[in-house]
Inverse folding.
């Protein structure tokens, strides 16, 4: 009797286990499928795409789209440059500003820390809206067509500041008390004691922030007019929606539009725009997951 | 007189604090300036919703029209349509999204192979890292009429091509599918962390008492996930009027054929800015969204404070 129930339960357990393995595998394949399709489409020959459409396994393999892109596209290189610039400047500036704010807001001898925390927090509850901020950016700050229009709106985030503050909370107060006794100033305590200890938090928040800037297209679409200042993702978005790609990819060489592998170039551009993320993903993922868990802890 | 002297004293306190902690104030200044300029200076700009905006005159010199902009939006039915779409999509994202995330978190927890666990967790999280522009590329890659992958398959099976980009009905499923696709890994990890936080001794005790795997899931894991689930659901409800602009815009773009079933508040506001230059109308919708959003967050927070005071936002 007893043995029978145990056997039955094992069957149930096995069933749950099997279902789990199968469902997760299927979902994981579904997660990978669009990437694989995009990559194999980028290596297709143009005539095959036109005749039969995008395929998972092409009949012929061709690197023509990549050749064309890498040899002729000034615009693509510029877009890469713009994205790298806003990612580096935005992430570094943001980390500096947010870590200083997190440090100050965590200081118990700083009398107005609750007031300033609320000032920051309230902006997550109520926003003026897209139209007023557009008018502010364009009419009053004169940021139309400026690279800073893509850096400033996302440089600092309320949640990241609180994440930073919560992380600094874990650093014992005695550390800076003894540093004060030794005569170190506030900024020196922040820079020489807190910053080295906060490296895990800086890595996590820096990753969030860099990812945001790398994937930036929205502010580019709103504020940027000169094609030379398009960020990578916006460049890609325009290319996908464009039928005549010639104007977008090159400014010098003359290519016969009929020979241009437009359909495969679209996918090749997408591959080149996603590439760095995929390459860095294995390293970045760890910090991302740990960031999620820090964020979950309420301070 | 008394008030004045108290004010003086208060100012004196602030000044003394400022002098004492001037380095700290200086370190905080960049962030505070940022929030004042890019958030607080924008807030009074919401006034544009109540005027007939004239770009050369600026916001505050334009003619005041009261609630006329709102009235217009209610009368022509736009406000109702985009509100309905935004709510329905977000309900679907929230309910379906959370259930799928929980199911996958439990399944992943039940798997014993740590190699499989690690790899599948990485793969499921991957979609979260790419921009929605890439998701738009994926959609083009799969659904476009002439060369899309699905149409390649249909033709090779001897069927007719399907015109996805002129069928509004099918896009609600595609949008929800891509949302689930991109959000499951992320949400799953939050639930997985909660399950991992459940005391292991409890599971062992249950095992000793002869509880089967399904009993353990049903009577232990699920009840323990309930608070997290309710909390995430409630906070999701607080943001139910906020649309995922980047997802919708990259899938639908400016394809007006699809608007009836895919237009949400955020895409509508965006179009009023970029396509029609109808600033006041867009701002009216934006203001309505922000105000109701605020009311919702406060309501939700009140409820959370009743049922789980520790998790309340404020």
């Amino acid at each position: 009797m007893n043995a029978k129930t145990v056997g039955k339960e094992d069957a149930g357990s096995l069933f749950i286990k099997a279902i789990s393995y199968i469902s997760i595998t299927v979902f994981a394949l579904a997660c990978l499928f669009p990437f694989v399709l995009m990559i194999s489409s980028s290596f297709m020959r143009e005539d095959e795409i036109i005749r039969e459409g995008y395929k998972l396994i092409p009949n012929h393999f061709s690197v023509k789209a990549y050749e064309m892109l890498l040899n002729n596209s000034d615009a693509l290189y510029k877009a890469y440059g713009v994205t790298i610039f806003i990612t580096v400047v935005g992430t570094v500036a943001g980390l500096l500003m947010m870590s200083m704010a997190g440090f100050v807001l965590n200081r118990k001898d700083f009398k107005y820390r609750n007031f300033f925390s609320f000032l920051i927090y309230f902006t997550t509850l109520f926003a003026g809206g897209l139209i007023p901020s557009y008018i502010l950016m364009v009419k009053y700050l004169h940021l139309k067509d400026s690279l800073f229009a893509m850096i400033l709106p996302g440089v600092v985030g309320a949640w990241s500041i609180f994440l930073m503050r919560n992380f600094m909370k874990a650093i014992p107060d005695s550390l800076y008390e003894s540093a004060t006794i030794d005569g170190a100033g506030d900024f020196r305590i922040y820079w020489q004691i807190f910053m080295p200890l906060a490296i895990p938090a800086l890595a996590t928040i820096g990753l969030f922030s860099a990812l945001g800037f790398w994937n930036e297209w929205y502010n580019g679409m709103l504020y940027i007019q000169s094609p030379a200042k398009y960020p990578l993702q916006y460049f890609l978005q325009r290319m996908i929606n464009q039928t005549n790609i010639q104007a977008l990819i090159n400014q010098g060489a003359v290519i016969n539009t009929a020979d241009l592998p437009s359909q495969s170039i679209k996918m090749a551009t997408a591959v080149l725009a996603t590439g760095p993320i995929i390459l860095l993903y294995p390293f970045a993922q760890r910090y991302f997951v740990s960031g999620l868990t820090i964020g979950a802890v309420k301070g | 007189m008394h008030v004045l002297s108290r004010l003086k004293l208060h100012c004196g306190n602030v000044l003394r604090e400022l002098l004492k902690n001037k380095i700290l104030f200086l370190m905080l200044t960049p962030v505070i300036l940022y929030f004042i300029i890019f958030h607080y200076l924008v807030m009074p700009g919401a006034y544009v919703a109540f005027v007939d905006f004239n770009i050369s005159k600026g916001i505050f010199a334009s003619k005041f029209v009261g609630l006329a902009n709102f009235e217009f939006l209610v009368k022509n039915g736009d406000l109702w349509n985009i509100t309905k779409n935004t709510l329905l999509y977000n309900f679907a994202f929230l309910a379906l999204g959370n259930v799928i995330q929980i199911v996958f978190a439990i399944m992943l927890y039940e798997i014993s192979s740590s190699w499989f666990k690690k790899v599948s967790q990485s793969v499921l999280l991957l979609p979260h890292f790419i921009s929605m522009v890439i998701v738009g590329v994926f959609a083009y890659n799969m659904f476009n009429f002439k060369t899309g992958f699905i149409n390649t398959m249909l033709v090779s099976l001897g069927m007719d091509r399907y015109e996805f980009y002129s069928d509004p009905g099918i896009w609600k499923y595609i949008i929800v599918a891509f949302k689930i696709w991109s959000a499951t890994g992320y949400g799953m990890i939050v639930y997985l962390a909660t399950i991992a936080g459940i005391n292991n001794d409890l599971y062992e005790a249950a095992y000793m008492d002869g509880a089967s795997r399904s009993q353990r899931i049903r009577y232990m894991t699920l009840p323990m996930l309930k608070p997290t689930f309710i909390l995430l659901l409630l906070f999701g409800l607080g943001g139910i009027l906020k649309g995922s602009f980047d997802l919708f815009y990259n899938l639908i773009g400016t394809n007006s054929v699809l608007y009836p079933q895919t237009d949400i508040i955020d895409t509508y506001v965006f179009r009023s800015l970029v396509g029609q230059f109808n600033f006041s109308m867009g701002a009216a919708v934006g203001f309505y969204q922000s105000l109701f959003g605020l009311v919702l967050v406060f309501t939700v927070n009140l409820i959370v404070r009743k049922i789980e005071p520790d998790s309340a936002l404020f």
In short: The CA atoms of residues 86 and 151 of chain A lie 6 Å apart.
